């Protein structure tokens, strides 16, 4: 039986570094580096750094 090919797009979760538990979910190309960006965290009501936590499968 042939192996399945991996998807070119992966779904990732960006977690707030303010430790509020708030997150954003994005899709990115598999070949790109891990994401990090400044975005608004409504819990602390300011922009904070969000880092990619882990890759998630499309299930």
UniProtKB/TrEMBL annotation:
Q: Which domain of life is it from?
A: Eukaryota
Which Gene Ontology CC terms are recorded? mitochondrion; ribonucleoprotein complex; ribosome
Q: Does the keyword tRNA-binding apply?
A: no
Could you list this entry's UniProt keywords, alphabetically sorted: Mitochondrion, Ribonucleoprotein, Ribosomal protein
For this chain, one GO molecular function annotation is: structural constituent of ribosome
Keyword check for Ligase, yes or no. no
Its main localization is mitochondrion
Q: Where in the cell is it found?
A: Mitochondrion
* Listed Pfam families: Ribosomal_L33
Q: Which GO terms describe its biological process?
A: translation
Family statement drawn from the similarity comment of this UniProt entry: Belongs to the bacterial ribosomal protein bL33 family.
Q: What is this protein called?
A: Large ribosomal subunit protein bL33m
**Organism source for this protein?**
Coniella lustricola
